[in-house]
Write a structure and sequence with these properties.
Blueprint: H1 5-29, H2 32-36, H3 41-63, H4 70-85
Helix pairs in contact: 1-3, 1-4, 3-4
Length: 89
């Protein structure tokens, strides 16, 4: 099966953007008690989104043997920055 490389990059970029939007949406629903409660479902959801971002990063690096595109890197960095700001990393 042939995979169109440029289409694959577009899909992956959309996945990063979707993760960023999901993280912002989850953080917007969280209260201060969610951040302090390790069993909070919203906190768990936010951490799952971060894990997905890291897994997508790794998949591109390892399985496709290439670096992220500049846009993918920027979006992934935004996710890391947001997560750091909210104390998730």
């Amino acid at each position: 099966m042939l995979i169109n490389y440029s289409s694959n990059i577009t899909v992956q970029t959309a996945m990063f953007a979707s993760l960023e939007g999901d993280l912002i949406a989850v953080l917007g629903r969280m209260s201060s008690s969610d951040f302090k409660n390790p069993s909070s479902e919203l906190l768990e959801e936010a951490l799952d989104i971060l894990a997905s971002d890291m897994a997508l990063n790794k998949m591109i690096d390892v399985y496709e043997d290439r670096d992220l595109t500049p846009l993918q890197k920027e979006i992934s960095d935004n996710i890391t920055c947001i997560a750091t700001k909210y104390g998730l990393m």
